Amino acid sequence: KLLPEHELVRSIIAQRVRKKMSQKEIAAKAGVPQSTIARIENLSHGLPKLTTLKKIADALDSRLIIKLQAKKAG
User: Fold this and answer.
1) pTM for the whole thing?
2) Best CA proximity match to 11, nearest among 46, 40, 52
3) pLDDT confidence bin for 67, thresholds 50/70/90
């Protein structure tokens, strides 16, 4: 299973592709620089702030869901 960070990035990219939007279009709609979207998608500067993720989710007409889940025993 992928690390949570990779799962998050994969879901952002998948949603963007489904919406047929470029990084530039998402950035404009989210009010962030295109370079921010590129850094997030490449995981090149660590994890983004929750406020940035919320803006991206809104730009993709998506919900941001963050939760804690118990680890599986064993």
Assistant:
1) 0.85
2) 40
3) confident
